[in-house]
Amino acid sequence: MTEPAADHPLAPYDGVLLLSFGGPEKPEDVLPFLRTVTAGKGIPDERLEEVGEHYYRFGGRSPINDQNRALLAALRSELDRREIDTPLVWGNRNFTPFTIEALREADGAGMRRVVTVVTSAYSSYSSCRQYREDLAAAQAEAADEGLGIEIDKIRPYFNHPGFSRANSRLVTEAVRGVVRAGVDADGLRLLFVTHSVPTAMDETSGPGDEEGHFYARQHAALAAAITDEVNATLDLDVEGELVFCSRSGPPSQPWLEPDVNDRLEELAAQGATAVVLAPIGFVSDHMEVIYDLDTEAAATAERLGLRMVRVPTVGTDAEFVAGLVDLLLERAAEARGETPVRPTWPGSDARPAVCEPGCCPNLRTARPALCGRD
User: Fold this and answer.
1) Cβ neighbours for 146, distance < 8 A, ≥ 6 positions apart
2) How many CB atoms lie within 10 A of CB 60?
């Protein structure tokens, strides 16, 4: 591939890398996948087999890879609609196609500088820096193979309107449907759900010279803004709050709370009759959504006599996909030395695409990371 022309919308990039978590495609993939995810943590196979039951009950296949394929197709369609011919490749942090496989594909297609879209919108070690470490390791492996590829990424996008407004619209429509179905709004509660992380990881999320807690604060800000939009649009006074799912650490290690199931118990005891679960912490309906929410939380709600409605994730929503392309164009403009408009909602804090020193540190072992100043 030749270098993109200077007036090409995504110049200086000649490729886009979609980088995701990854997941097993068949039952025999489950244990190797979980070993990769938990590498270095000393978790025995017996415990991994227990976790693997979540996957086995869905045929041993995670939905995340098909969702990434769908997102790739949607990005391709949106790029084509804007007459942007830049090719895309896809890689995963934890299962094939691994990031190094994506870089080999990129090199084979003649790409020399790619911009990365990570399927995680928030700031923390596990949702940002760990992907940056993965990029650094893959780039180093590629260099050992004689492949030279420069890698950048878009900024964290929890408050880019393509993501935040799409979530707001989906939540509003879900609440509207519940109210139209005759549910008394006085008994309705709105729960915004994200993946729990160790409290130490949350405390150190964000740049090292700031106050931390970026992970929880970003989620809380978006949850509050969406709650306000729902109430203003539908003339309601529904209460919204942030809850967590997918806790996986030892009991002795504190993680962010409350767990969604515990909060459902409390709400039922307080007289709530219906809940709307909005998984704003996730981009697609992967295992933490279809098992932790659609299976476990749904069972809890049924046992408690709570009506539960789960809001869709943004997935391949047209507004979200268009927002990702806007972010690619924004990053390309920055790489050209321009100062593009960087829209945000809620708030005005557009996080940088190049992370500041000490941002979201690895609390176990210091590792090289791309797309940052340290």
Assistant:
1) none
2) 17
> What are the backbone dihedrals phi and psi of residue 189, each rounded to the nearest 5 degrees, phi first?
-130, 150
Tell me which residue has tokens 């100062």.
339
Q: Mean pLDDT, 10 residues at a time, over the chain (374 residues)?
A: 75 98 96 91 85 92 96 98 98 97 98 98 98 98 97 98 98 98 96 97 89 95 98 98 91 95 98 98 95 97 98 98 98 98 97 96 95 94
Instruction: Please choose, from the candidates 114, 67, 105, 119, the residue with its C-alpha nearest in 3D space to the C-alpha of residue 281.
Output: 119
**Amino acid code (one letter) for 21:** F
How distant is the alpha carbon of residue 14 from its chain centre? 24
Which residue segments constitute the domains of the chain, with CATH numbers given? 15-157+317-335 (3.40.50.1400), 161-310 (3.40.50.1400)
Element (DSSP H or E) covering residue 300 = helix 298-304
Q: Which residues neighbour 372 within 8 Å (Cβ) at sequence distance 6 or greater?
A: 129, 132, 354, 355, 356, 357, 359
Question: Rounded to whole angstroms, what are the CA distances from 360 to 204, 215, 328?
Answer: 6, 9, 23
Which tokens hold the place of 323? 């927002």
Per-residue pLDDT, 109: 97
In contact, 153 and 132? CB cutoff 8 Å: yes
Gap between the Cα atoms of 348 and 321, Å rounded? 21
What the block records as the tokens of 197 is 């992380």
- Closest C-alpha among 242, 3, 16, 7 to residue 116: 16
Which residues face 89 on adjacent strands? 17
What is the rounded distance in angstroms from the CA atom of residue 329 to the CA atom of residue 313? 24
